[in-house]
Amino acid sequence: MWGYTEQDDSIPIEPDLARVFDPKCLPIELVHSEPSTKAIIMVHGFPSTPYTYHWAAKEAYKQGYDVFVPLLPGFGTAVEDLYNTTFSQWFAYLQKVYETKRGAYEHLFVVGTSMGGSMALKLAQKFNSPPLQPDAICTIGAPVFLNDITVGVIQKWGYYLMRLVALFTPALSPAPFAGSENKNDGEELWVGYKGSFVKGGVSFMYALKTIRKDLPYITAPLIAMHDKRDKTISSKNLEVITSSVSSEHVERISTEMQSNHNRHILLSYPSIQHPLLQNMLQFFNQFCSGEPQ
Q: pTM for this structure?
C-alpha cells in the first residue's frame, strides 16, 4: 500500500470501559465457580463489539468453558476513539489478554469473527509452538485479503481508494449503532459503529498482507467457517486460509445461507448458530486431555 507506514504499537492503549455508548459493548467474562481447565477467548470484528458473541459465550460456558470476550481499544465507546488507533495497537491489546489467559488455563482456544478471525490467525502465527501456542483456533468469515484480482475477487472497488480517502478524513458517516427493531435472523442485534472507517481500514488491509504471507507458520489445529454468499468478506478466503496453514488438524465448514442479511457473523444467526457452535466445541474438545471425544 503506497505511502503507508504503521503507527508505533509500542504505545499501549486500553479500552475505556466507562465510556461505552451502550452496556452491550462491555467485555463478556464468564468464569465458573469451580476452577475450569479450559477457556475460550472470542474476538470481535471491525468495527464491532463483544455483543457479537452474547449467545455463543453463554452456550460455551454451559458446556464447561470459561469464556472471555474483550472489547478492543477504540471500539464501542465513541467513533472518534477509533480514528487514531491502528491494527497493531488493537492486536497488542489482544495479545496481552491472550498471554494472561494462556498462563491461567491448561487448554486455551481462540475464536475470531471477521477481523477477529484475522487476529486469531496472527496469534497462532506468533505463538506457533508450546507452551504459548493456542490449543486450537476457530475463524469465522475471516479475511486474509479484501480484494485480490489474482483469485477473481473484487469485493469492493472502493478498497483501492481507501488510502487516498484516509489522507483527508478518518471516517465517512460514522455513528454508534445499538441494534435495530427490524427482525432479521439476529443481525438486528449487531452492536458497533456504522459508517466507513477508512483510516482504520487502511491499517487493517496493511496487516492482512503479512497475515496472509505467514499462514504457513500456523501449526495449531484450525476449524474455519465461512458462508459461500458472505456479502462482507469473500468466501474465497476460506480456501486460501485452510490450504496455506501447516496445521495437521484442519476442518473447513462452508455454509450457504438464504437469509436476507450479510451472512457474515455466523454465530449471531439463530437459523444456523447452534450446529456451528456444536461443531466448533466438538473440534476443541478433541484437544482437551481427559475430555470425551
A: 0.95
